[in-house]
UniProtKB/TrEMBL annotation:
This is Nuclear receptor 2C2-associated protein. Gene3D superfamilies: Galactose-binding domain-like. Keywords: Nucleus. It comes from Haliaeetus albicilla (White-tailed sea-eagle). GO terms for cellular component: nucleus. Its main location: nucleus. It is found in: Nucleus. It comes from the Eukaryota. Belongs to the NR2C2AP family.
Length: 141
C-alpha cells in the first residue's frame, strides 16, 4: 500500500499567493492539516501554483487533491525534478470542478525531490484557487 512520503510539517512547501496575505486563515499549511474546515486560498491572478520540496527523494505514484467547487482548476500541470536540476513537465491533469476529494490522479511513477503543481485554468473568474487537501503518495527512497 502506498505510504505518504511527507506531511506539511516536514515538507517545505511554497505557494504563489495567499488571499489578502492572511496566512493564519488561508495559508499553505492548511492543505496538510487534515482539518476539513481549513484551506489554502490563493489570491487573484492567473496561474497559481504549489511547490513541494521533499526532504528525501520520493517515488511519487499518486496525487490527491480537494478543491472548493467554483475555485478549482480545469487544468493542472505537473512538473518535477531531482535536486539541483531544472523542473521538467511530467503531465497534465484535468480535475473536476467539485468539492469532493479527487484521488484518481495516478501519475507515472517518477523519482523526484521537487514537485510543482500549476493551476493553469481556474474556474473562478478572478483566478483564485481554494485547496482543502493536497496529498502526494509514494515511497521514500
Amino acid at each position: 500500500s502506498p505510504s505518504r512520503p511527507r506531511d506539511g510539517g516536514t515538507c517545505p512547501c511554497r505557494v504563489s499567493s495567499v488571499l489578502n496575505r492572511d496566512v493564519k486563515q488561508f495559508g499553505k499549511k492548511h492543505m496538510f492539516d487534515t482539518n476539513e474546515e481549513t484551506c489554502w486560498n490563493s489570491d487573484q491572478g492567473t496561474c497559481q501554483w504549489v511547490t513541494l520540496d521533499f526532504p528525501r527523494t520520493v517515488k511519487v505514484s499518486q496525487l490527491h487533491i480537494q478543491f472548493q467547487g467554483g475555485f478549482s482548476s480545469r487544468l493542472c500541470t505537473l512538473e518535477g525534478c531531482r535536486a539541483g536540476e531544472e523542473l521538467v513537465k511530467i503531465s497534465d491533469l484535468y480535475p473536476e470542478d467539485i468539492n469532493a476529494m479527487q484521488i484518481s490522479f495516478a501519475v507515472e511513477e517518477m523519482v523526484l525531490d521537487k514537485l510543482k503543481i500549476t493551476f493553469e485554468n481556474s474556474t473562478d473568474f478572478f483566478g483564485r484557487i481554494v485547496v482543502y487537501h493536497l496529498g502526494v503518495l509514494g515511497e521514500r527512497l
